[in-house]
Amino acid sequence: MRPIKRAIHLDFHTMPGIYDFNREWDAAVFAQTLADAKVCYINAFAKCNLGFAYYPTSVGVPYPGMKGDMFGDLLRECHKRNIGVSAYMNVGLDHERGSRFMDQTKLSRDGEVITGDRTSYGFRQMCYKNPDYRAYLLGMVQEIARYDIDGFFADCMFNSPCYCTHCLADRKARGMDLYDPDTAVEHAKLVWLEFSEACKEIIGPDRYLILNNLPYYRGRNLHTHAEVECLPGGGWSYDYFWPHAVYNRTFLKKVVYMTGRFQASWGDFGGFKSKASLENDYYDALCTGTEVMVGDHMHPARNLEPAVYRTIGQMNAWIERLEPWTEHSVPVAEIAALTDTEGWLSTTYYGLARLLCELKQCFEIIHVDADFSRYKLLILPDTLTSTPELAEKLDHYLKEGGRILSTGTAGLAPDKSGFILPQWAFDFEATDNSHTGYYHLNKLDDPKIYDMDYSMYGEQGVLFRARSGESILAESVKAYSERYWDGFHGYFYTPPEKKTGYAAAAISGPVGHIAFDIFKAYFVSASYPHKALVRQCLAQLLPDPFLKTEGIPSTARVTAARNDSDLLIHVKVTHPEVRGKTDAIEEHGYMKAGAVVCVRGAYRHGYTAPDRQPVEIRPEPDGRYTRVILPAVEGYRLIVLN
Fold first, then answer.
1. Is 269 in contact with 296 (CB distance < 8 Å)?
2. Residue 150 CB contacts under 8 Å (≥ 6 apart), including other chains
3. In whole angstroms, what is the distance from residue 44 CA to residue 546 CA?
4. CA 90, CA 126: separation in Å to the nearest integer?
5. Which pLDDT score, from 0 to 100, does residue 491 have?
6. From residue 404, how far is each of 185, 333, 421, 425 by CA, in Å?
7. Helices and strands (H, E) in the chain, number of each type
8. What is the structure's pLDDT at 151?
9. Where are the alpha helices (DSSP H) in 542-585?
């Protein structure tokens, strides 16, 4: 299979009635535009959201007026230039089919086949359990698989429940409740997996396969890789990509950052966010050890937009020069945050990833079923459920010298009666769903922290006491009252009253606990004391982190990776700015020379890549760290140590 790197995801969803469809289309020009932009791979259109096919199908509906075989021609011309091609096919949406055969659409519990915004794209979804739609769809997959494609991209695999007669009959046959909403969702997932397995069988084992919207962890035996779809300005936000990248890379061999060239979101024909903005996404891909894919949408009457691909070509030429160092590198991670999700992470992990990035920690997010042994510290965040199986793994991990930080109700037994293991050497009192808690930091050596009570900005979670001699980092402070309505007053003003005697954060040996949902609260509030409290916990639980920094702002990102012979330090200083309702990047950030990254270990040489300019390095007095004095950084720099 051709490698997926410097890739394009090309939408081509074409409304009926384009009178000059394909006016300027030329497959050779199309492919040469990609080659000139140093594109190595593309997800290209075989069947779009509207249900139109772009090849001469005998099963589906070709776009009216299409001449020849657009998909076959572009595939042939791309392969001439050694550009890999995955066939894009929308399987969850097919408005041509759905409007002609309404019985093949999903039926809501209220009997609706059309819901939501009818001027958008997802107002009518198709039912994979319907035998006629399934046969039609798999027939098109078989047609496409006969081409010499490198992969297959199945889009819009929604798992919304369906109440059509076929789905109801199937639930009944499985002994499932017909109308329970949770059961209906679970049934939709089963139908979805069965269809995915059928696709996998047709496509075969030697091609790439993405089943978009099938959560990557649940579909890890079906997906060949992950394409993390994230248009930062198009509804995902800049906080979405990083946690999903560092999660997916732990169980799939390749992760690709699918960003977009759009100012808004998919379908934005007239939007091209600034070059600096797109470069920032390339930098994020480098920092997380992922490949990059740019989303685009081709005009139905024209060819690829030359201005867009000139810009992409400049960026691809630059990143190509870094590939001798980065292409086979492996990110360094010594902290792992646990999750039990099938694939899509909650805002708890957005806050966690942002906070740990700001602290320049080397971390990943891993599933609770993963191997813990390669990490020095585990984080059990906020509301993670500690099952007996997880408790057994954590007990073994601690006995082997590991360390744990838990927050909120994570670390409690499933019945919330107490901490799950004796290594949580605290006295548990009760859970507490207070929304107006405060805490007081005991250590005030940070100049940005003051001697005052700070709001938790979230649910308190746990009331616990540290035992004598244990390290209490913060004390819990109660408010005068919760927010409530007494019939006369709405109790909105709830100032702190007094310390409760409970700990807000404490450490006992290898285990630390923070009493409230600090990561979700950080995502909501960005409260600096939350970050300071986590930093204090990490300073005790992980006193010798892989990276330590001086003079680098919190908005910058610093990560490490290894290739066969070198240690790579990625330094990114570009970051988004809030402009009205949009996070935007118009120009690159700048950091003057002289900032420092201290790297655990001894290194003799340092230089920048790809230009191989020497970088000043010297050992720390204790010999345990190497001090790297950074040159000026505009946007991004790669430092190589050996």
1. no
2. 1, 2, 41, 84, 85, 86, 207, 208
3. 41
4. 10
5. 85
6. 34, 15, 12, 12
7. 13, 34
8. 98
9. none
From residue 390, alpha-carbon distances to 204, 249, 412, 560, 626 in Å are 35, 21, 11, 29, 37
Q: State the pLDDT at residue 123.
A: 81
pLDDT at 342: 86
What's 346's DSSP letter?
P
Query: Looking only at Cα atoms, what is the longest distance across the chain?
Result: 81
Predicted local distance difference test score (pLDDT) of residue 433: 84
Give me the pLDDT at residue 115, please. 84
Question: Is the CA virtual torsion 203, 254, 564, 320 positive or negative?
Answer: positive
Q: Two tokens at 364?
A: 């990943």
Residue 233: predicted pLDDT: 85
Cα–Cα dist 456/438, whole Å: 5
Q: Are 257 and 225 in contact (CB under 8 A)?
A: no
Residues of the chain with pLDDT under 70: none
* Cα 528 to Cα 523: distance, rounded to the nearest angstrom: 11
Would you say 585 and 238 are in contact if contact means Cβ atoms under 8 Å apart?
no
Measured between alpha carbons, how far is 148 from 150 in angstroms, rounded to an integer? 7
257-267: pLDDT as tens digits = 999 999 999 99
- Per-residue model confidence (pLDDT) at position 61: 95
- Which two three-digit tokens encode residue 601? 């270990």
Give the span between the Cα atoms of 585 and 321, in whole angstroms: 24
Strand ranges, E, within 212-301: 226-229, 255-260, 291-297
Both tokens assigned to 80: 């001439």
CA of residue 331 relative to chain centroid, distance: 16
pLDDT score, position 343: 80
